[in-house]
Structures are given as C-alpha cells and as structure tokens.
Amino acid sequence: MTGRDSGAAADADPATTRHPVAELDDVTKEYRSGGETIAALANVDFAVEPGEMVAVIGPSGSGKSTLLNVLGLLDVPTSGTVRLDGDDVTDYDDEARTMARRRTIGFVFQSFHLVPMLTAVENVLVPTMFVQGDQTPRARALLERMGLGDRLDHRPDQLSGGQRQRVAIARALVNEPRLLLADEPTGNLDRDTGRRILEEFERISTEAEVGVVAVTHDELVTEFTDRTVELVDGVIQ
Amino acid sequence: MDPLDFPALRMAWLNLQRNRLRTGLATLGIVIGVVAIAAIGITGTALQYGATQELGGLSNTVTVFPGEENEDGAITDSQVASIERVATGAVVVPRRTETLTVASRSERRQVTVQAMSRPAALYDAAEGTIPSPMRSGALLNAELAAELGVELGQTVSIGGRSYRIIAILDEPGGFGQGVSVVVPLDDIDGDGYDQVTVVAEDGEDAQRLAAEIPAELNQREEVVGTFTPADIQETVSGFFATLNAALLGVGSISLVVAGVSILNVMLMSVVERRAEIGVFRAVGIRRREVMRMIVAEAALLGVVGGAVGVVLSILIGYTVNGQLNGQPGLVFQPRNLEFLALGFGFAVVASTVSGLYPAWKASTANPVEVLRG
Questions:
Q1: How near does any CA of chain B get to the CA of A75, in Å?
Q2: pLDDT tens, residue by residue, A200-219
Q3: Containing H/E element for A125?
Q4: Which positions ≥6 away from B119 have C-beta within 8 Å?
Q5: Exposed (0-12), middle (13-18) or buried (19+): which is A37, by Cβ within 10 Å?
Q6: Which of B11, B273, B279 best probes binding to A when mutated, by most A CB atoms within 10 angstroms?
Q7: CB–CB of A79/B249 below 8 Å?
C-alpha cells in the first residue's frame, strides 16, 4: 500500500500565486463497521479554485457527504493530505479546525438548521457570536441582498423554505468565507425556489471569488456549476 | 440594540424559554432546595431566639444547694460568707423554702414559698415595687395572683399569717427557677438556708462561679452543690446548633436532588438540540464556547430558582418570627442573612455543577454524527 505517486495532484503550480481554496491530496477515509472496514473515500484527489462552483454527484452512500465533511474540516481523513488556502490542515486539532472553519468556510445544510427562537438577523449572526465586533450591519446587508429586507426580524417559523435557506446562506457568508460547502442545498425546496438559491450561489462564487462545492442528487444543480464530479463507492469517476 | 452582547447568556436565556414547563419544574426543584436550607435555618434561629429569651433573665445566676454529704441539709452562715468571698462583686441571696398554703378569701393553693431578704436582685416587679431589703409584705407572681383573684395592695394568708401584697412579679411560674410567692427571710424559720442564689455578671461568669464555689467549700466533703441555667443555655444552644446542622443537611440533600434534576433536564435538552449544536460547531463555534452556553443555561436556572427561593424564605421567616417571637423583623438578623446567602450560593453552585456534564457532552459531540439525518 504505497501509492505515493504524485502525478494527478500536481496542479499546485509554483508559477502561479493562486492556491486552490481547498484541496484533497490522495485522501482515503475508512470507517469500521462490525469488524469490516469500509472505504467512504478511496485515494481521492480534489481541488476547488476561488470563484469556481463544483457539483459533486453520486448515488447514496457513494461518499459525497464524507467528501464534504473532510473538505469542511468536520472530519479527518484516514490518510492523505487536506489543504485549505495552501496550508496543510490535516493534523490540526479540534480547536484549530474550528477556528479555520470560522475564518474560511461557510456551510449550508439540506434542512437549513436555523435556531428557532432567533430572528433572521440573529441567525445570520450565530457564527460571529463569540467574535469581537458587531456584525449586525453586515448581517442585515446580506439578508437585504438576498431579498429578505422585509423579513429581518422574523423567526424561522414565519419564513418559507426558500427564505429559510437564504437566511442559512447569509449565515454561511457572514464571516466572509473563501469556501462555501452545501449539502443538498435544494433538497427541501421546490424547483423554482431551488433555481433561485442556485442563482444566489452562482452570484456569490463569481462576485466574491468564493469556491462553492455543492453535494447533490439534483441534476438542476449541475446546470449552474462550472464542473461536476461524480463519486461512486468513494472513487472519483 | 445589540442582542448578542452577552451571547452565551442570551442564548441560555432564550433556550430556557423553549420549554417553559420543563424550565419551570427544574427551577421549582431549586426553589424547594433553597427554601429547605434558608427557611429551616431561619426557623431554627427564631426558635433558638425564643428559647434564649425564656432563659435569658436567669442565665447569669448560680444556685448553691446543700450537697449529698451535708449532714445538716442546709447551708450555714459561714458557708454563705465563704460564697461571698469567692463571688466577689456578685449579689449573694440566701433563701429558705417551704411548702405552705396560700389563701385568698375565695381560693387556696399549696405552693412553694420562698423566703429571702433581697428578692429585688432576682425578680422584676410588674406592679408595685420590691423593697430591698424586704422586711414585710409578700410578692406574688401574676399567675398565682390571678388564680387567687387578688390584686396589688390586697391581703392574702400565707401559712396562716396575713400578708399585704406589695408587688406582683413579672416572672414565669414554672421551669425550676420560677417563683410563686416570696416572703421576708425571717418569716420562714430554720437553721441556715435551703439555697443560696448568686447573681453573676453574665452566663460565662455564672459558669465559672458554679465551678469555683464547690471547689472552695467542698474541702473534705461535698457540702454544697451548684446549678446554673447558663449550663442549660449552653446545652440548649448546642442542641439548636446540632438540630440546625441536621436540618441544613436535609436541605442540602434536597438541593443536590434539585441539581440531579437539572442534570437530567439539561441532558435531555442537549440531546434534543444535537443538530443545532452540531451546526454551531460547524460554523466555527468552539467547544469551550458551546460549553459556556450550556453551563450558563444551568447557572441561570440556579440564579432564578435561588432568587425565588430567597424571596420565599424571607416571607416564611417573616411569618415565623412574627408568630414565635412577635418580631417579624428578626428575619433580617445577620445569622439569617447567612442562611439566605448559603441557600442561594448552594443553588447556583449545584446548578452550575449539574450543567457541566451536559455541557461537556454537547461540546464534544462530533458534528458529523450530529448533522447526519
């Protein structure tokens, strides 16, 4: 098991100063389940450039969520290297990974996961809760740009699904991340709403030079992305 | 408006309002615990205060009585002189007692009559004045006077002789040290005295004299014994201290139980909010920040429950002191404030400690596990 050929992952060209926002280099993630070892990711090489929007598709259990979790520093690989903005973050401890997430990564989830008793603005401010400085103006501006200017002080149960997802996107953007990770962002939305959410992603990725990775079943997503990666049994096709 | 100025505290406050019934019940546990500690402590203080007041007037006296080896069964004049020598500066009151019939025109009672020349040193008059020395007349306590139906200035028959009542005593009748009737010393015949009462400076001085007088007089034989209510008072204080400690122990247990119920509530609430806490962790909230939020929640339960408990305890203490001692304001004496502080402090500490484990559990949950499903 010494697959250390450096052929495929050689896109870190020393000539260019632009690093990929996030990069997986020969990453394998194995789970132990009832004495068996299951490889959720097998020798995966993957990179997202700033301003690039990538869709990751594949059947259930193909390792899409694991890919997203490893990219988002929520999970550590069994082997291989994870880089964020050019830094090797593979061996970061929990604290360092949390701080890297706070600085660099925004998450959008399928079921929004807003805090029910907080207003839209307060939900957007959640990632900044323990950070010095008042980000309220930025939170309001983000929501206004998402077309939620008249919903700032509404609670999640007073918002529609599409509105909730837009609040969640604003929350993901409040810390000015370089990487936006979305897990089935349109999974709980109807087609029109989903389309508007994806347009939002597209705008963010081009305007703010944010790398966007969306894991999805929904082929609508692939219409908006620059690139689509298919994952089957933990292997990129 | 900056609602997230104290983020951990504000989140905690909002989280507690999610399930108000559950929060209310957990708080109720704390309230009961605080009341158990503070109200019981305050009641103990009130009881002790009452008991001390009862003994208070007599606790500085020493009674000297004939010892087991005293052949005469009486205290002689020379022994009284010795007592006076030991108890320098104290008032020494020799006395004789005899059971006699006391009668008014309509009623008669068999009572213990005390004969002494200086009753003013021992008793207070409710009506009339007590002359010192007393050479004639009689003193009756209010209770006996009422039973006989006589008043100040009237005449009663004591042991067949007529006495004018020159004062009504403001003294309790019972409890060993009580007194019903006092007549001049020479009106009861006898060699020596049945008792000598020494009035000391204070309880401590009384206890010292109660030890020194027999040491001086009982050179070869036990001719005198002593007794002082100061001993009783000390015993009573000790009893109340023990009682209070035991009750406080029970109160503390109820706060520990309340703490366990907070632990339970917080664990449930943390499990219910797993996904939300996972999102917090995903968006960059650190473990210790998650812990801070959950611990703040538990501590807040303790503070609210503690405050309500303190208010209730003051109300209870106010009523109890009013009923027992007629002085409701006694609830604010320093010792009671200590009990209130103890109850409140214990409530906050027990709640906070109970929040630690749920907080740790919440903060160490793997966000990946939490977000799945």
A1: 7
A2: 889 989 888 899 999 988 88
A3: helix A120-125
A4: B93, B130, B132, B134, B139, B182
A5: exposed
A6: B279
A7: no
